[in-house]
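Q: Sequence in, structure out?
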Amino acid sequence: MSNKVYITNDQKTVKVPSGLRILIRRSCNAVLEFEKFEGPAEISVTFVDNARIAELNNQYRNKPMPTDVLSFPLGQDGQYDVDPDTGAKILGDIVISMERAMEQAELYGHPLQREVAFLTVHSMLHLLGYDHEEGGLAAVHMREKEEAVLIQLGLPRTVSYTAEE
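A: Exactly. Output:
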C-alpha cells in the first residue's frame, strides 16, 4: 500500500513544469522514509498564487502577506485520522505559492523544481510535527533533516532558506 499525494493546481500565474508533480511525490515519500513513518500516508498539495496564500496566511496566522508555503497538519502527537477507503493516515495539507517559489528560485539562482522540492520537504516535516517557529535547537534539527532528505533527492541545499527567516 503506497502513499497518496494529491496535487491540485489552483493558480494560473506560473506554468507548472513537467515532472514537478513526480518530484513532489518523491519529496513526500523521501521524508516519510527518512522519518521511518509507519504508513501509508495521505497528503494534499495545492499550488496557489501570492494573493491566495496571503489570504490564507492572514486567516490562519494573522499575517496579511504572501509567504512561500503553508502547512496544515491534521495529526497531533503522532496520531492521525485514517482514510477509511485506503487505510492511509491523513497527514494534512501543503499549500505552495508557485508565484513566490518562482521569485525565490530566481533570487537564489536555482531551478523552480529545486525550490518546490525544498518547500515540500520543509512542509512535510511540519505535517509530521516538527517546528522551527521558536528557533533554537528545534529549528537547527529541522534544517538538518531537510538537508539530509534533499541530499537523498539529489538536491543538496545551496542557499535557500524559507522567506520567514
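The longest helix spans residues 136-152.
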